[in-house]
Amino acid sequence: MAAKGGHEAVVKLLLETGKVEVDSKDKGDQTPLWMAASGGHEAVVKLLLETGKVEVDSKDVWGQTPLSIAAERKHEAVVKLLLETGNVEVDSKDENGWTPLSWAAEKGHEAVVKLL
Known about the structure:
The protein is an all-alpha fold. It has eight helices and no strands. The longest helix has 10 residues.
């Protein structure tokens, strides 16, 4: 919930305890990274990526990855962070066959389209 809400200080404290599963999934198969990307919470995304313990291409029940949801919602800074890892599958398809580029183009997010 801290990642979903973009609560950077709380996420940092939780990570420092070493007692949290940073890649846990909720009922919708959404991870903290997915939730932070969804909300455009750049600082939280960065903290989670820095752990080295997150699967950057983890899919939710609809097949969307953190990159896909960030592209759909026009979170340019988050898209850039995820791309900079060098570990994301840019052409990952969701259950409807849509890629992050498909989502960004459909929603008219020109800056995100250029990044992808």
